[in-house]
Amino acid sequence: MKKDPNSKTPYDLEERSFQFAKGVARFCKNLPRSIANIEYTKQVIRSSGSVGANYIEANEALSKKDFSMRIKISRKEAKESAYWLRLIRETNSDCYEKEAELLHGEAVELKKIFSAISEKTRT
Fold first, then answer.
1. What residues contact residue 113 under an 8 Å CB cut-off, 6+ apart?
2. What are the pLDDT tens digits along the chain (123 aa)?
3. Candidates 3.30.110.70, 1.10.10.10, 1.20.1440.60, 3.40.1280.10; correct CATH number of 13-120?
4. Residue 107 and residue 82 in contact, taking contact as beta carbons nearer than 8 Å
5. What is the pTM assigned to this prediction?
């Protein structure tokens, strides 16, 4: 995997979205088991995994329209992941705040990346 020598963020968007989903899953494993956290983690695990899954589908798209739709879905799922991570961060103790904030930041960055791709592929 190629990396920018000045950055710890992978260039490969498939790998980056995979690492994001993996980070979310690991983070959720450590959260206290409450009714709210159980529901929030179900949602964020689904949406974070869907970011990369739809990006992979976009790369295998049969048409430009199909590619564009999958990129928009990836963007939507990244935005939804950011929402759930914010909710988790704000409803749990401070000891989870730093990791939740890092994951939230990555979700926002992925949303921006998919927005830029979507803008460049507009027909």
1. 13
2. 334 445 554 469 999 999 999 999 999 999 999 999 999 999 999 999 999 999 999 999 999 999 999 999 999 999 999 999 999 999 999 999 999 999 999 999 999 999 999 999 875
3. 1.20.1440.60
4. yes
5. 0.87
